[in-house]
Amino acid sequence: MNRSEQGNRVSTVLGRRLGGQLLLLRDAAGKTQQEAAQVLSATATKVVKMERGWVPVRDPDIHALCKFYGQESPEVLGTLLSLARLDRERRRAKGWWNEYPALRDMVEYVALEDVASSVRTWQQAAVPGLLQTADYARALAVGNGAWSNLTEIESFVDARMTRQARLDGDNPLQLWATVHEAALRQLVGGRQVMHAQLGRLLEIAGQPNVSLQVLPYSAGAHPGVTNAFTIVSFDGPGAVDVVHMDTTSATLWLESEPDAVHHRAIFDRIQRLGLAQRSSADLIANIRKEM
């Protein structure tokens, strides 16, 4: 599901999730959009836009709708308010990512990553973007062929390096990364680039907010053999996880709770098959010596 527009309204991942939950509550209460609109002293069109994630939702509207729908659970209300707050922050943000056209479809993901509390990522063909060196990212961009000139490539690389600031600071992102051994042996940019890249992995794996595991060839068949994916999580009561996947032709967002539960379970199984962090570091160091 890509970032989509309705007129001058923008549908965001968080907005769609919030709207979907409001729709479920309204259906469970047996209320119509027109009745919900009357409670808000608004039009049914506004309710439609809220439920489809096209517009930001105000806290008073959430309180009024929950009361009208008979939903008095503090946990449910807290979840909705948290989603609404994050979505409003996302829409208002004049983030650095807007200055990088070369990010293209990654803009919404980077914006979410900027307000996330943690990220779990499974990668089988490449080092995760948050852990890449500039030379490695540049070699990937050149090999990808999606950028038409060197200026765009350098802009992409610069944006990728800027993203990595989320791993530092007073409130750093918690990162769990599991990478297949194949990604560490693929000669992206050549031996010198890979030697430096593997050194970067060893360096950053020492940070308390970074957990890095390697899934070795010896693990054999595993539940992540089909797709790489990233799970983005947020703080707050009952906060929602969203799953992000890139394909060769589109960016895919999985936004339902069953999808999140399914991918968390897959990630956990991959982690159990992976080497412990110390053993992972030893394997990375050995591969680096070969470079």
Element layout with pairings:
Blueprint: E1 4-6, E2 9-11, H1 13-29, H2 33-39, H3 44-51, H4 59-68, H5 74-92, H6 107-115, E3 118-123, H7 134-144, H8 150-163, E4 174-180, H9 181-185, H10 191-204, E5 210-215, E6 229-233, E7 242-246, E8 251-254, H11 257-273, H12 277-290
Parallel strand pairs: 3-4, 4-5
Antiparallel strand pairs: 1-2, 3-6, 6-7, 7-8
Helix pairs in contact: 1-5, 2-3, 4-5, 7-8, 10-12
Verbal overview:
This protein has 291 residues and is of the alpha/beta class. The chain folds into two domains: 89 residues, Orthogonal Bundle (434 Repressor (Amino-terminal Domain)); 191 residues, Endonuclease, Chain A, CATH 3.30.870. 50% of the residues lie in helices and 13% in strands. It has a six-stranded mixed beta sheet, with helices on both faces. Strands 1-2 form a two-stranded antiparallel ribbon. β7 and β8 form a beta hairpin. α2 packs across α3 and α10 runs antiparallel to α12. The longest helix is centred in the N-terminal third of the chain and has 19 residues.
Helix content: 40-55%
Silhouette? elongated
Q: Tally the structural domains.
A: 2
- Topology, number of strands: 8
What series of H and E elements makes up the topology? EEHHHHHHEHHEHHEEEEHH
Poorly predicted tracts of residues: 1-9
- The fraction of residues assigned to DSSP E strands is 5-15%
Number of helices: 12
Instruction: Briefly note the structural class of the backbone.
Output: alpha/beta
